[in-house]
Amino acid sequence: MKVASQKQVSFKWFGMAVQFSIIILSACSERSFRYFDVVWDDPGKSGKFDRISGTNFSVIVANESIVEVSFLRTWQTSMKGSCVPINIDQRYIMRRGESGFYSYVIFDRPQGLPAVEVYQIRNVYKLAVNRFSYMAISDTRQRNMPSLTDRKQGRTLAYPEAVLLTNPNDSKFKGEVDDKYQYSSEIKDDRVHGWITQDHFAPEGFWIITPSNEFRSAGPVKQDLTCHVGPTVLSMYTSTHYGGKDVTMTFKEGETHKKVFGPIFVYLNSASLKEQFRTLWPDAVRQSSNEVEKWPYDFVGSKDFIPPNQRGTVAGLLQIQDGGGKAQPASNASVGLALPGKAGSWQKECKGYQFWNQTDKNGNFLIKNIVPGDYNLYAWVPGFIGDYMYTTKITIKPGGNINLGSLVYNPPRNGPTLWEIGIPDRSAAEFYIPDPNPELINRLYSNNGTDKFRQYGLWERYTELYPKQDLVYTVGVSNYHKDWFYAQVTRNVNKTYVPTTWQIKFPLQNIIMGGNYTLQVALASATYSRVEVRFNDPNVKLPHFSTGPIGDDNAIARHGIHGLYRLYTIVVGSNHLVKGNNTIYLTRSKATSFFEGVMYDYIRLESPPTKAT
Ligand SMILES: *[C@@H]1O[C@H](CO)[C@@H](O)[C@H](O)[C@H]1NC(C)=O
Ligand SMILES: *[C@@H]1O[C@H](CO)[C@@H](O)[C@H](O)[C@H]1NC(C)=O
Ligand SMILES: *[C@@H]1O[C@H](CO)[C@@H](O)[C@H](O)[C@H]1NC(C)=O
Ligand SMILES: *[C@@H]1O[C@H](CO)[C@@H](O)[C@H](O)[C@H]1NC(C)=O
Ligand SMILES: *[C@@H]1O[C@H](CO)[C@@H](O)[C@H](O)[C@H]1NC(C)=O
Ligand SMILES: *[C@@H]1O[C@H](CO)[C@@H](O)[C@H](O)[C@H]1NC(C)=O
């Protein structure tokens, strides 16, 4: 496959790095541009944009096989209030024979800088309007897209990023919703995304390949933007999307820090015939596998990027023991290293590097390419609640290999299961996801498949399904696939949003008097919510349990099926339950808009401990 447009000129012509850098910055075409920006503020404020330009250009290396250039901005006191107090070095690398360029950024906070909060860091590529028309973010999520003009001529919906295309140039998009958040991905699923031109006899592709997620914050299931109408291609380093303010890089006054983001690879491909445009996506996927194979890169100029021979590995065997009995292999578990913290702290951690992998079916894991430093090892296992953490700190030495041997996770459990709702997998995907309003659909997801939750406006369907009375779930009768709405949202009563109370009805054959029962409630998401739990008396003023105010992950408005994970273990004495029919009342107590709500991951009632547990 040939290199697109005039960039190959620069491969043959390596001496003059300044011109070279101009060519790569103009990226794919003369009508496109890129920028790098940071959303930041003084602690406690709301966030301002800083579009970073280098003030100091230098050539790191320039020879026949590689050119690396640097655009550095060093923070000065005179920038206080207008620029994020971090020294930022943007680097670009081109290598002979590679169709594209590498891009990485070094953040450095030397001594003496003011306190700051960083909410978002991203690289934005705006491609030539009217040329790139086909967007691809996965094997199944790809298609021709509406244009920016179509968006501008449309009608903005309740969430301003969402637009109903009322007057698109191409009538086949009429009546569709476009919203950039419909194209988010979990970080672990986002190896490559980009756009393809179809206008020419020779189609071209522009792709962001992320060979490692080590520098991206908040772990492998953090979701973020990929591509959207513009045509826009993003490389998100960190953001509060689907996590909220908890997922913020925070620095105290004088706190020092250094981190390398990337490199990522900006890959360009082309085909010689118009009809061959469909080959560009599989070619980009192939290229992303090549980049993963090459990781960690051995050609990066900064000494702050740790080369392959200085990195370490951690191996081990993870087993699970749920409520006594023999330990079993924890298969398909996610196991990772992140900065030392508490069990589950990785999902909010933004400052360090994270290294994740999956266990095999026997529970074995191997995590390679770890940057030397101090970590904790964290894990969670599909099918089981809670978070595992290996409490001894792990120190990775350059080139060091650690085998932790056999580790056993005892997930939270106080007694045998009486009943359960859902699957403990940190997502609400198994619950009832309604069909979208036919007037507000995105046809990319109209096949009723696993991406259905990405449709716009599903939250409004709750009021239509439950106009007078909230959801009632009867254990043993109801089916959570059909009878448990994916999110407990507010209800719209005559244009006023009211709190909702869901009921779980269940029988108890007999009561173990004096014993403690346990309700395990795992949430997959929360936005401006408070969940109160009452047993058998909906009117008792003081709830038996309250989560307190939780969450701003905004996963409902942004069409996610989860945000941050939370687990509540609620102990209830037998005096609150009765022999026969019982009801648990789950009240989402606050209501000011339709984007507020929680998603449940899983609910389980356990009887009092027996000897075995
Ligand atoms: C509008 O659509 C026509 C044909 O469908 C196409 O030739 C033209 O380039 C489009 N214009 C814009 C601005 O997208
Ligand atoms: C993940 O585990 C697999 C299987 O053990 C291994 O082949 C692969 O190299 C590991 N990847 C990383 C990045 O550690
Ligand atoms: C989607 O699938 C569900 C369950 O299979 C079905 O009840 C529903 O009617 C389908 N909706 C559409 C629009 O096909
Ligand atoms: C909603 O408004 C209608 C018409 O004004 C009224 O009849 C009805 O009682 C109201 N419903 C509620 C729950 O307030
Ligand atoms: C039940 O829980 C309460 C409160 O946590 C505790 O004081 C009590 O000892 C427990 N009873 C039993 C039988 O474990
Ligand atoms: C208990 O609930 C079941 C199922 O909803 C119902 O059929 C039964 O009549 C109830 N029993 C009593 C004693 O209310």
From TrEMBL:
- UniProt-listed CDD domains: RGL4_C (cd10317), RGL4_M (cd10316), RGL4_N (cd10320)
Which GO MF terms are attached to this record? carbohydrate binding; rhamnogalacturonan endolyase activity
For this record, the Gene Ontology CC terms, alphabetical, are: extracellular region
EC main group: lyase
- Report the EC code(s) recorded for this entry: 4.2.2.23
**Where is it located?**
Secreted
Catalytic reaction equation(s): Endotype eliminative cleavage of L-alpha-rhamnopyranosyl-(1->4)-alpha-D-galactopyranosyluronic acid bonds of rhamnogalacturonan I domains in ramified hairy regions of pectin leaving L-rhamnopyranose at the reducing end and 4-deoxy-4,5-unsaturated D-galactopyranosyluronic acid at the non-reducing end
Q: Which UniProt keywords apply?
A: Lyase, Secreted, Signal
Protein origin, superkingdom: Eukaryota
SUPFAM superfamilies in UniProt: Galactose mutarotase-like (SSF74650), Galactose-binding domain-like (SSF49785), Starch-binding domain-like (SSF49452)
Gene3D superfamilies cross-referenced by the UniProt entry = 2.70.98.10, Carboxypeptidase-like, regulatory domain (2.60.40.1120), Galactose-binding domain-like (2.60.120.260)
| Family stated for the protein in its record | Belongs to the polysaccharide lyase 4 family.
Question: What is the protein name for this chain?
Answer: rhamnogalacturonan endolyase
